[in-house]
Amino acid sequence: MKKAKSVFKKLLAFSIALAMLMAIGCSGGESEAKKQQTFINSLGGVSETYAGAVSETGYETAASAAEAYVEEQIVGDNDVNIVNVGAGVELSSEQVTALNLPEEISEGVVSVEEIEVEYSENEQVPLLREVAQTKKVKVYVIKYETDWKYFTPLPITGDTLNKSYYDSIFDADKYKNCTLSQEVIMNMKVKANYDGQNISTTAKVKMTTLIKHAAGKIYVEMTTNMSMMGMDENNTVKMYIEENENSYNGYLCYVKMDDESSWEEGDLYAAGFDSLDSLTPFHDQYLDYTYFKKTDYGCELSKENFQEYIEQALGDNELVGAYLGQGMTIDMFAKYYVSNGVLSGMRMDGTIGMNMTEDGMAMKISIDMQTNVTCTDYGTTVVTNPVQAA
């Protein structure tokens, strides 16, 4: 039984690491639509401010600008082969007006053309005599006095995100003054066989995290409540970080391990973080933008792309990486909510299943996970020094 407890504890540690990394990435019978609307209401609604952008680079021809749009804005990390660039069709003044070009873009515009570009994202495979299907996209290019630039519009609901829009909502500079609140609820079920003995257990974990950013200061409060095999553990860790030029790493860090202890100088690792960047909201949602679909509330990482999410975002983590690929099945989604043009919330929901062997024990594992993240009080968050106040 000691062996089983040791293995289950490792699995629980894996599950917690997975949950934390994915979030800083349903139960109750409540419908998804109702849960979503409740979440949107808590954010004060959703709304976009992205009005489009033009390329930083200017091009000599309309065709070269259109090709650059495909290569830089819609294919991500994939290799692209431009099959055909159609002739440009100049838009009428009414059609240009309908594009709602921002003032800073429309200044100096000579003309706007629509060009259809045909392309493929996979090279021909001679041995299989197989050729990738081509796709077509309409590109808007703008003629200024000396060059051409492509225009990147707000993606249409249902379309894959373009890079410009993705960068605008995941811009880390927007999170320098804000408050992040996160709740993770996780239920794990394990059925195992060891030395002919059948063993089953469950574990429940609830983690809440509060992170405040303001004026070179960060305050963190993390509470974990978990139960497994008749054992209950409750823990709260608090951390205060302040920029300090005289420190060897550029900041001072103080940690309070529980309510009874005092503040002590420490490091980020005490609270499970490996860098200051890891405290930034949505810091690990760095996937190729082509994995995301535009929605009327922001964007979504679909179930189909979640396996790639796990492998790319979490594979470098030693604890999580050790379990990847061991018969893992994933049925999850992540929804990202944009309010006033800023990424202000994320909901993740679903199940991860694994069939694996650990230390001679064959196991079937199911992990149900729900995560809610809100990022609010942009520009108004205040962080006071709790060490001095103690």
Can you lay out the helices and strands and say which pair or pack?
Layout: H1 2-23, H2 32-42, E1 53-54, H3 62-74, E2 81-85, E3 89-90, H4 93-98, H5 103-106, E4 111-120, E5 135-143, E6 148-152, H6 163-169, E7 178-194, E8 197-214, E9 217-228, E10 231-243, E11 251-256, E12 264-265, E13 292-294, E14 298-301, H7 306-314, H8 318-321, E15 329-339, E16 342-358, E17 361-376, H9 386-389
Antiparallel strand pairs: 1-6, 2-4, 3-4, 4-5, 5-6, 7-8, 7-17, 8-9, 9-10, 10-11, 11-12, 13-14, 14-15, 15-16, 16-17
Q: What is the gist of this entry?
A:
It contains 9 helices and 17 strands. By secondary structure, it is α+β, with helices and mostly antiparallel strands.
The order of strands across the largest sheet is: 12-11-10-9-8-7-17-16-15-14-13
Number of helices: 9
* pLDDT < 50 runs, ≥5 residues: 24-29, 123-129
| Helix-strand pattern | HHEHEEHHEEEHEEEEEEEEHHEEEH
Amino- and carboxy-terminal Cα gap: 44 Å
Throw out a few tags for this protein:
390 residues; alpha+beta; 6-stranded antiparallel beta sheet; globular
Report on this structure:
The protein has about 400 residues and is an alpha+beta fold. Helix content is about 20%, strand content about 40%. An 11-stranded antiparallel sheet has the order 12-11-10-9-8-7-17-16-15-14-13, with helices on one face. Strands 1, 2, 3, 4, 5 and 6 form a 6-stranded antiparallel sheet that branches. A hairpin with a 4-residue loop joins strand 5 and strand 6. The radius of gyration is 25 Å and the shape is globular. It starts with a helix and ends with a helix. About 30% of the residues are buried. About 5% of the residues have low confidence.
